[in-house]
Each structure stands twice: as C-alpha cells, then as structure tokens.
Amino acid sequence: MKIKKLIFIFLLLTGVLFNLNAGERTMPVDMIIMIDKSLSMQDPGKFDSLKQWVLDELIGEIIINGDWISLYQFYESPEHLVSIDVKGKEDTDKIIQTVSKIRPNGRFTDVGKALDKIQEAITERGENGRYKVLFMLTDLEQDAPLTSKYRGKQKKFSSPYLVESRIIKHDNWYEITVDMGLQERVVKNSKALFSDLLNNDGKERLRSDENTVLIKKR
C-alpha cells in the first residue's frame, strides 16, 4: 500500500519535476523504463523517433546522478536489460549503449504482460523511501498470442492502469507514465468493478473507456 501511495503522490509531482531540466532536479528517483520492440514499431514515426527521444530527452535531460534506472524491452514477453545506479557519465553511457542495441523485431506485442512486469518490478524494488517513476514507451498496439491472458489484437490497448496515467503522444508512439496506484482508487469508487475483477481473476482484463484516457498531442 505504501508503494502505491508513493507512486500516486509522485505522479502528482511528475508534471513539475519533468518540466525541469535534469540539472534543476535534485531529488533522485527509482525509474523503470519499458520499451516496445515489437514489429509494429518499425512503422514510420515510431521506433526511430522513440529512440531519439530516449537518448536526447530522457537520458540527456531528465536522468540525474543518484537515480536508479531499470531498463526493459518487451514484445511477446518483457526482458530485463540492465539496472544501474547512476553515478556519472560512465553509467549514462551504459544506458545509451543498451538502448542503442534495441531493435524493433519482436513477434507479437503483449502490452498487458509488460504492465504486469512493471508492477512486479516495483514490488521487487521494495519500499526504500524513494519515489517510483514508471515509463512505458509504446505504440499501444496489442497483438498477444493465444497463450496470453491478454490474448488477441487491439489497435490501442486498454487497461485500468492507463485510464489516468500521464500519456503524451509523440509522432506515432506514446510516452506513458504508468499509474499503478489507480486500481486501488477504482475499487473504492466502483464495487461493481471490484467484484468483476475478482470474478475474472486470471482472465483478460476489462477494457477501460478510451474516451477518459488523458492523451496530449505534442
């Protein structure tokens, strides 16, 4: 519960913190970055644009010394690439090298499974008194195999986690600051949804109303 509260509080501060240049932010955070490397990311305005943003803005302008960074790539399944305490240029160079090696060549895309992995990763990181920032960079095109509980295709994946997440559109992909604390608030506001989630545990997640998703065109 405390982890969820920390995430929610930080999301309220995200707009302030990440409108600042890296040199102006002094509070280190734990940051989990999930990058979509599926085949659909080969389309124009997707992976090349995404990678340039990661290198120029996320690494170049947002990450500061003291941050803990855990980097993943995903397609059919999420894959952990590196976790590192950023202490200087050598560490940011290692992150740059890792990102530069990612290629959009993965068969299938399971956004739901990637979201589950983010939840698992913050649980493993534990309560350490640091704010948690959870980035997912994706085109949101879901094409999960039949073996997935999120199986099937969606042009734009829907999830309760995404309803109030901070979502910014860049070219043909999305920068999403995932709100893992949302489900707790949804449960409090809707007993019907809570009951349905329990009854359908292990099955495909409910689709959220995309009309309520906050998407800002850059």
How are the secondary structure elements laid out?
Blueprint (H helix, E strand, L loop, with lengths): L1 H16 L12 E7 L10 H16 L5 E7 L3 E8 L3 H12 L10 H15 L6 E7 L3 E3 L7 E3 L11 E5 L2 E5 L4 H8 L1 H9 L15 E3 L1
Parallel strand pairs: 1-2, 1-4, 7-9
Antiparallel strand pairs: 2-3, 4-8, 5-6, 7-8
Helix pairs in contact: 2-3, 5-6
How is this structure best summarized?
The chain is 35% helix and 22% strand.
> What's the total helix number?
6
Radius of gyration: 17 Å
Strand content: 15-25%
Supply the helix-strand structural class: alpha/beta
* Helicity, as a percent range: 25-40%
Helix and strand succession?
HEHEEHHEEEEEHHE
In total, the number of strands is: 9
Spatial strand arrangement across the major sheet: 3-2-1-4-8-7-9
Instruction: Give the biggest beta sheet.
Output: 7 strands, mixed
Spans of at least 5 consecutive residues with low confidence: 4-13, 182-197, 204-218
Mean pLDDT: 79
Distance between the termini: 33 Å
Please tell me what the overall shape is.
Answer: globular
